Amino acid sequence: MASIAPAPNGPTTTSPKRNLVLTIALVVIVALVALLIGAELYVRHNVKQCMSSQFQSELGSQVDVGLSAKPVLLQAIDKKVPYITITSDDSSFGPAKDMHVKARVNDVDLTATDNSSGSVGSSTADIDWSTDGILATIQAQPFGNLVSGVTSDPTAGTLKFQVLGLAELTVKPQANAGTVNVETVGAQVLGLGLPTDLVSGVVDVLTSSLQAYPLGMTAQSLTVTDSGIEMSLAGGAYTMPKADPNAPVPSGCSLLT
């Protein structure tokens, strides 16, 4: 009796219809991914512009804002922003001019309430205030034309102001318990004391410039360097004020509200 030979092994042909379905599915997936990436980049750009406008009013100058890696599209849903970085090369705290600031704001919750527009978990900042910036700040005051220069002494921790080219006013700024105190170390001209109004004016301007910080931050340390002053700030939980309902909303801000 003749035996039946087994069928030869060979490549299994895939249905053309199945190949078409797979191709269409891949095209749809790629298109969706490209759409999400494009939307994320667009929204991220708009939100950065919005936050730059908001922090510009706090710092008094143009700022660069950086966002965490968490997708902004997800932040728009849960209102939770892990952190924001802020860089400004010309900030103004109180009367201060030309302060360089690098800050980080953590755990931002943009859930608005009847009394606030959100909250911040914590914040930190590093500030560099050059002697040129200090001089510009003093010279912007009514008595500023009497002051011609500022030098720093990191060894003594002091700032020295040249007055009318004949006198020197020396002060020592120090951070203590979250605030900055400015102590007059020396104030003489040709062996005579400088006018009290001038001395108190310089001290008051410096004190105001070194104590007015955003987001409830306070001074943690202050160091006099060869080029000016360096400070570190820190702040804890902070409730952001309620936004003015009549104020125009900057471009991109509505995406997170």
Descriptive notes:
The protein is of the alpha+beta class. 29% of the residues lie in helices and 38% in strands. The protein has helices at 16-59, 72-78, 131-139, 196-209; strands at residues 64-67, 80-91, 99-109, 116-130, 147-153, 158-163, 167-176, 179-189, 192-193, 218-224, 228-235, 238-241. Strands 1, 2, 3, 4, 10, 11 and 12 form a seven-stranded antiparallel sheet that branches. The longest helix is centred in the N-terminal third of the chain and has 44 residues, at 16-59. The termini are far apart. The mean pLDDT is 79.
SSE arrangement:
Layout: H1 16-59, E1 64-67, H2 72-78, E2 80-91, E3 99-109, E4 116-130, H3 131-139, E5 147-153, E6 158-163, E7 167-176, E8 179-189, E9 192-193, H4 196-209, E10 218-224, E11 228-235, E12 238-241
Antiparallel strand pairs: 1-2, 2-3, 3-4, 4-11, 4-12, 5-6, 6-7, 7-8, 8-9, 10-11
